[in-house]
Amino acid sequence: MTARPGMARAMAAAWALLALLPAGPLRAQSPPAPFEGTCPSGAPAKEHYCAFFVRYNTGDGPLQAMVGDFLGVTEASQTRSVGLIIAIDDYPNLPGHNLTAAAVDARRLQDFLINDQHFDEVIVLRNADASAENINYFLEDYLPRHADDYKGSDGKSRARLLIAYSGHGRGRSPSAQPAFILSGATDPEGSDGIYKMTEFTGDVANLATHYFHVLTLINACFGANVFPSGSTGAAASPTAPGSFIITAGSPNDEVQALIPSRGSLFFDLVVNSITQGEADPQSYQYYSSNQDGSVQSAGTLTLTLALDSYLTAAFYRINAIQKKTDPAFHAISPPYFGPVQSGVAQGGFFFVANKPPGDPLASISPYLKPLAPGSPIETASIGEMPPAPGLPSRSYAFSPRPASTEATADQSVPVGPVSSIKGHPDIKIFKPPVIYPIKGYDLSSADGRIDWNAFARSPRPNFIYARALGWAGPDPTFADRWSHVKGLGIDRGAYIKFNFCLSVQDQLDQFQRLVEADPDMLPVGIELVTPSVDQSQGARQLACYQQLGAAQARERILQLAQGIKLQSRKTPILLGNSYNLSVLTDERSETYMIWLNAYGPHNAISSKLKLRGRNPWTMWQYSGTLPVPGIGAQTTGEVFFGTPLQYEAFRRGEGNVGLEAAR
Fold this sequence. Notes:
By secondary structure, the chain is α/β, with parallel strands linked by helices. It is built from 16 helices and 26 strands.
């Protein structure tokens, strides 16, 4: 077994994944036969199975922008989000082993997929309806056939599939193979009323060849037995196809519902952390508008890797808190995570939520309190479990709210890399950095000595900016950066920090002496920072700034930008955070491009993304903590706002390309 739990995986999952290859032969999968029938809802399924569709959208609605970004589609009809929920809470032949939590999971997952994630179709197999025959029909017939309806010009399907299971499971024993225990089971060690985990894994592996993304979430004791043995695989990207499984625990451990009325611990945290924007604080999307740049709408993105890391950290924290208050508390196994098979494991499923990132402790807060003595705790296995009150098979009626038809903020946002909406340059857009294909770094003496050999062996950025002049004068590391970047064939640019104590001409002369004329260099950056006494050289700069006044400082900045444009014959770009840009630029600065510095804690990022006026960003400094081989773990990262074609116009210095794209 190679899927690993633990804090080490939580720390390393974003950079290296565990790929799991099938341990033995999988069941042969024959191509599904064509089917001409249609359910009243429009689902292309056999009549017997129509009742299991609790949601079926004909595909006429608007496309969610982030779905289009990752899947590379422009119309809702080109893609499909499908959910299959298998939930078993009623075990009539196994008295005392009904699962309150599984019933809650079924209801919450259905609501989550329909009303929060706006899936196009949701299929629910619950209790007696979750028979081996019905499961086989959807896994082996309907789902693979349906995915092929959404193939793109490259032959790859643009459909996404989420499979969720909540119910009992059994582990490996001398007399039985690992299996999910279905509602009709009479003997948990027998062969009737069970679904072997190896067969389930084979079906999911086959589905991975039909769907762009497949994510399987399993809350069952011993559920990690779905993972076959294998070896390390590739890192995940949400823009590539792939199939992953996350299980609530290890192959040898039971999983628990600490508060059964909330459902299983696993699915309670999955649903809440995604809907509250907690699981992935690094991925978000903002739209700002109005002249003051205030944020109008915000959304979060949760990637598979981040979800797994969040769950692992949450489980460890809950263990630590509960053990502290109750030494007899039975520690919960952290989730297991891995790809389904080699060759289709590069991509990661994603979830979206129309709200800003939330408090990372909100979802786990109910579990950080001491559990009341005698609190009912359910385990999803058949073993030495205290009898639980029985639940009728249909005790929870499915009555979902209709999927919202209201237009959400991102439905007018263009698919792909953008920083604004055409015709509305006052609306600024910040998508997850992974959406922007043109990326780079900026370097200064703060980065210290660089191991260029190590850097050369790592994936290379599209561009690197190096600081030429700071408040203290020439940056002592500039010459080293400038020559090595050119030698590596990476686009290079220089930036200077506007000096309030020097005349415009003195700054132009310094720059000309330090930076050799190069027609291939990127537009020059001018960094704008309002001085304060706690900065290096800040006291002197502050005195000069106060003597000048803000209006005169803005005038000099415009003069410097014009002088650099004449020297380099390229339109410069103004670098600063939202505050510095608001103080040191005005509407006259729209001639020049904007390089916005905005990164930091997820709960404060919205205030940093405020960009007033009608000049969208051309470059976005989105991180100061990128781990880059040869440079270090505190590298500053940038993205360019647009397409490779727009980047070529930027390289040539052809005006304010960010603003031109929005006109």
